[in-house]
Specification:
single chain, about 25% strand, five-stranded antiparallel sheet
Length: about 110
């Protein structure tokens, strides 16, 4: 049985290092990341695939949006974050796969 598509929120690192940040917590996300978009996907790997430049911006059409938001990269990379509202959990793109980000602040209130 195939996974059902659902909505995920994508947050890109404001100053990308393209490395995982072991000190990153949900409470620090507003400082380090900027919300970029919502993606309909089946799981985190599907979000990653859909956020590669050749998929969502094949002719560079999203570059002006990225720049207007003060971001620096089009393709999702290590250090970017995906929020799964169904699980109410945040995941950082790691060198291989994803790692859950711990909470150090009050729960998300949106």
């Amino acid at each position: 049985m195939a996974n059902q598509a659902r909505r995920f929120e994508v947050l890109y690192r404001r100053e990308p290092t393209f490395l995982p940040d072991p000190t990153l917590t949900v409470g620090r996300l507003r400082e380090t990341h900027k919300p970029l978009c919502l993606v309909i996907a089946t799981d985190l790997d599907d979000v990653f695939r859909k956020m590669q430049g050749e998929f969502w911006s094949p002719r560079g059409e999203m570059r002006p949006v990225i720049e207007r938001l003060g971001l620096h990269h089009t393709s999702m990379s290590v250090g970017d974050v995906v929020y799964d509202p169904g699980l109410d959990r945040y995941f950082e793109v790691d060198v291989v796969g994803f790692r859950e980000i711990g909470r150090d602040a009050p729960e998300r209130t949106t």
